Amino acid sequence: MNELIDIILHTDDALLALVSDNIVKAYMVLFIIIMLETGVILFPFLPGDGLLFSAGVITATTELNLYILLPLLILSAILGNAINYRTGVLFGGSLHKSRNYFIRTSLVKHLPKAEAFYSKYGGRAIILGRFFPVIRTYLPFVAGLVRMEKALFMKNTIIGAIIWVSLFLCMGNLLGEIPWVKNNYGLIFLFLILITLIPLLLALLRRTVFKR
C-alpha cells in the first residue's frame, strides 16, 4: 500500500526506488495501479498516462524490461475494463442511485461525462476513451450499465489497451535514452497530465461560461 501511495504522489522517484529495491514488486505494483484505474470507479485519479510513460523511460535505463512490461500492462488494462464492465452489468443501477457519500462524490460527479462520451462515439468510445483520464475509468462501467454487446466491448477493450499501453510505454522507452528526458521526466510527467486533462477542462469551460 505504501508503494502505491508513493507512486501516486511521487511517480518518478518512487518508481525508480521500487525498481532498485525489488523488480518483481515493481511489476506487481504497476499491474495493480493500471488495473485499479481502469477497473474500479473509485480510482479515476490514478496516474495512468504519466505512469506508463515514466515506466517506459525507466525501462531504458534500468532492469525493468519493456518486453515483460508491455504484455503485462496490456493484460492489466484489459482485465480492469472487464471487471468494470461486469460491475456495471451487476450493480450499475443500484450504484447509480446510491446515497452513499463516497459513491455519490465519485460516481455521480463523473458518470454523466462518460455517458455523454459513450452516446457520442458508441462502441468506439471504449477505444478512444483510453486517452481521456477519468473518462477511461467510467466508460467500461457505462458500457456494462447499458448492456453493450460483450463481444464488441471486449474487442474494443483489447484494441484500446494495446494502443494505449504500447504508445506511452514505447514512447517513454524511445525517449528515455535522451539525457534531457532522463533528467526531467518528472516535468514531462506533469506535462502529460495537463495535456490529457485539456479536453475535460475545455468541456467544463463550455459548460460554465458559454451556457450563461
UniProtKB/TrEMBL annotation:
> What family is this protein classified in?
Belongs to the DedA family.
GO cellular component, alphabetical, reads: plasma membrane
Note the superkingdom of the native organism.
Bacteria
Q: What is this protein called?
A: VTT domain-containing protein
Topological category with respect to the lipid bilayer:
Multi-pass membrane protein
A Pfam family (short name) is: VTT_dom
ATP-binding in keyword set: no
Record's InterPro entries? DedA-like, VTT_dom
* Keyword terms: Cell membrane, Membrane, Transmembrane, Transmembrane helix
Q: What is its main location?
A: membrane
- Provide the transmembrane region boundaries: 26-46, 66-85, 157-175, 187-205
Q: Which residues form the VTT domain?
A: 46-173
